[in-house]
Amino acid sequence: MQLKFQVKGMDFSRAGQAATKIKKALQLAGMDPATIRKAIIIAYEAEMNIVIHAYHGTLTANITPHKVEIIAEDEGPGIPDIPLAMQEGYSTAPPHIREMGFGAGMGLPNIKKSADELDIQSEVNKGTKLWAAVFNN
Amino acid sequence: MQQYFHSVRLDEEKCKGCTNCIKHCPTEAIRVRKGRARIIEERCIDCGECIRICPNQAKLAITDCLEKLKDFKYTVALPAPSFYGQFKPEVTPSQVLSALLALGFHDVFEVALAAEAVSWAIRHYMGVCVDRPRPLISSACPAVVRLIQVRFPSLLEHIIPIESPMEIAGRMAREQACRKTGLEPDEIGTFFITPCPAKVTEVKQPSEGRSSVDGAISMAVVYGALLKRLEMPAPYPVAPRASGVGIGWGRAGGENEAIKAGSLLAVDGIHSVISVLEEIERGGLTDIDYLEAQACTGGCIGGPLVPQNPFVARVRMGNLVKYYRSQEKWEFPRELDYYRLKTPIPARPALTLAKDPQVALARLEEAERICTELPGLDCGSCGSPSCRALAEDIVQGYARRSYCIFELRERLQQLAEEMVELAQKQPPAMGRDWKQIRDGGVETD
C-alpha cells in the first residue's frame, strides 16, 4: 500500500509528522521492529531535508510485507555534489537553521546507514529525488 | 494462568461509560462497550492515567492488603523513596520507619538505600560498556518499560540491563533477613510500599522469572494505617540509613542527580515520555548518555496511589535530600553481575492489525479508507478513542461502522427522507380524491 504526504519547506512546526504517521502504519502492518526503526530514520531525515532545504515536496511510503520504500521528492535548490553531501558533518544549512539544532550534516549519512538500497537523483535549481528501500526480514 | 496480570481494573458498578479514560490512555487500550469501559489486556501498561482521569473513581488498582503479612514468618517493609515525602515536616523519617514496625512488619529495608547501589551500578555500566546504544533508557519505571514493549519495541535494546531499585531492595532485604534470623528465603516476605499500580504489576508479573518482592501494598493504604501509629511507641526505633542520593530517586530528576556522570536527560509525564521516545526512535538524542523517564508527572511522588499533593511532596523531598545528603556511605555489592538483568526484555507487539503481514496490510489500507470517510471529530461516542482508532477496530472486527453516531444520524436522515418521499407516492388505483367523489363533486387530478 502507499502513503503520501505533502511537506512544506521551512514549516518546522509540523516537521516530522509525516514520518510519525509512516511509523504508526508500519507498526499496524506488523513489520519487524528493526525494519520500522530503519524506515522511520530514513523517513524523518528525508522529511527534514525537504523542510530545511527545499520549497516543497512529497514524502511517500510504499509498504509491502517484504519491503518498505521511502521516496522523497522535492522542488528546491538540488544537490550539486552528492558524494560530498553524503559525508558526515557536511552541511549547507544556514546558521539560523543550525541554531534550532537542525542541519548538523548527518541527514544523508544517517539515511545511508539505515537504507538497504539507496538512490539519489538531483538537478541543481530544480529538485531532488531520494529513493530508499528497507527489507523486512 | 491468564496471559497478563494487571493491577489496573474497572469497578463495573461505578463506571458510567463516559469517554474520559479512553481519550487519555497512552496505548489506546480502553474501549467503551455496553456502557462500560473495557481494558484491552495486551495493550494496558498499568500507568494509571485512567485512575487519575476517571471522574467516577471507577478505575482502581489491585494491591495487596496488610493481611498478607500473615503468610510469612518474617516480613520486611520496602518503603519507596517517595514515601518519605508524604508526611508533615515535623514527622521524621525515623518516626515513619519505626511506625512501619508498629504496623506489623518485622524489619524495614529502604528502597532508597538500594537506589544508591543501583546508581553506582548504572554509572559503572556506562563506564565499562563503550559500545552501548545512546541514549540508554532507565529501567526503573515499569510503566515506561512496558510502554516501550508495546509502542517502541525497537528501543528495547536502549533499556539499561540493570534491575530496578525495588527489585534490588527485595533481594538485599531477603539476604539480610536470612542472615539475621536463620530462616529459609521462602519464609521471609518482602513488601513494597508502592506509589503506583505499575509496580504492583512488576511484582506480580515481572519481565523475567520471579520478583524478589512478595507483595506490593498501596501507599495510600499504608499511609492511613500509619498516621494512627506515629504517636505510638515503636517496638524499637529505626534510623534511616539512606542518604539524599537515594531518597532523591522519589522525585523527577533525582535519578540523574544520583548518577552524576555523562550527559543526562530527565523526562516525566507519560505523554512527554512518548514524545522523547519518538525522537530517539527516529535517530535523535544520540548526544545523550542516559535518559531518566518516569510515567508520572513529578516522578514517583506523582503516582496514582500517593496520598500527598505532589507539589507539596516535592518541597518536602527537596528538604530531605538536602538534610540527608551527608549520610554515611554503606557497603553494598560492588560487582555489576549482582544488578544485571538476566534476560532481554521481550517486545509486546499489541498494535498490529493481524498476525499475517499480508492480511495486516490489506486491513491497514481498508482502515485508511474508512478513516477518510469518518467525520474526524474524535468525539469518542463510538467507544473508541478516535476516528482513526474506530477505523482500526472496524477492520479487525471489533466495531461496526454504525457505531459512529454521526454516520448513524446521516443514515437515519436519509431513511426519513425516503419515507416521506414514499408516503407521497400513490398507487394508480388510489389516484382520486375520495372525499370529493363521495360528496358528488367534480373529479380533480
TrEMBL record, chain A:
Signal peptide segment: none
Instruction: Name the keywords, alphabetized.
Output: Kinase, Transferase
Q: Where is the Histidine kinase/HSP90-like ATPase domain?
A: 16-132
Q: Which GO terms of the molecular function aspect are on file?
A: kinase activity
Work out whether the entry's keyword set contains Nucleus.
no
Extract the InterPro entries matched here. Answer: HATPase_C_sf, HATPase_dom
Name of the protein this chain belongs to = Anti-sigma regulatory factor (Ser/Thr protein kinase)
From TrEMBL, chain B:
| Organism superkingdom | Bacteria
Looking up SUPFAM superfamilies in the UniProt record yields:
4Fe-4S ferredoxins (SSF54862), Fe-only hydrogenase (SSF53920)
Q: Show the PROSITE patterns listed in the entry.
A: 4FE4S, 4FE4S_FER_1, 4FE4S_FER_2
Q: Name one Pfam family in it.
A: Fer4_10
Which InterPro entries does this UniProt record tie to the protein? Answer: 4Fe-4S_dom (IPR007202), 4Fe4S_Fe-S-bd (IPR017896), 4Fe4S_Fe_S_CS (IPR017900), 4Fe4S_Ferredoxin_RnfB (IPR050395), Fe_hydrogenase (IPR009016), Fe_hydrogenase_lsu_C (IPR004108)
GO MF annotations in UniProt = 4 iron, 4 sulfur cluster binding; metal ion binding
Which ranges carry the 4Fe-4S domain?
362-421
Q: Which residues form the 4Fe-4S ferredoxin-type domain?
A: 6-35, 36-64
Q: Which UniProt keywords apply?
A: 4Fe-4S, Iron, Iron-sulfur, Metal-binding
Q: Specify whether DNA-binding is a keyword of the entry.
A: no
Has keyword Acetylation?
no
Q: What is this protein called?
A: Iron only hydrogenase large subunit, C-terminal domain
Q: Which organism is it from?
A: Desulfofundulus thermosubterraneus DSM 16057
